[in-house]
Specification:
Blueprint: H1 3-15, H2 18-25, H3 29-43, E1 48-51, E2 54-57, H4 59-82, E3 91-97, H5 99-116, E4 120-126, E5 140-142, H6 168-174, E6 187-191, H7 193-199, H8 202-210, E7 212-217
Parallel strand pairs: 3-4, 3-5, 6-7
Antiparallel strand pairs: 1-2
Helix pairs in contact: 1-2, 1-3, 1-4, 2-3
Length: 223
Amino acid sequence: MNWDDLRIFLAIADQGSLAGAARQLRVNHSTVFRRLNAIEDDLKVRLFERLPRGYVLTAAGEEMTVAARRVEADVADIERQIVGREVQLRGSLRVTTTEALAEAYLTRCVVEFCERYPEIAVELVVGYQVYDLSKREADVAIRPGLRPPDHLIARKLARLRWAVYAARAYTNRFGAPGSVAQLKDHRFVAFSDQVVEGLSFGWARDLARDGEVVFSSNNLLVP
């Protein structure tokens, strides 16, 4: 069994479906289907139960998952040790960030970066999905946060400040709150739970709970 087979097996185990594994690995659905059948034929054991709700690990599949995770960790360690040792910087660089940071800052920085390092192709992945850098799903993550995981190398780039704002037309109609306590009588345009959980807007969520949320979005640029 080779590492590519283990990658396909783990992707199916993680995603619970052939389609999800194909998207994760960026291959065709038929490729995943064919490789899984070949793996099970070679091992002469069924690794997944094909159920209406998806692919569920069998007892043999559970045992194989433990061993495959160890191999996955070893491969990731080798990549981390080797990547970056070449003197000339070239290749691809996958950067993930939020839509707000991409539009306000990153796109301008990418232009300068590409001029300085013409042999590097930058792929900017925008959104709130969290990518696993230890598995090389992305090389660099630029995101708001208070404490990154211990296994990552992090650098603080800036401090973000947030406040509550109101349009003049709104205050003319509903009045302006004179204190935090009076916010409970006002209407809010807020971030959805998907954004709140990812970006630690606990204070904004608490204020919006006291008042009336009339519009919410998972995109920071929309509100």
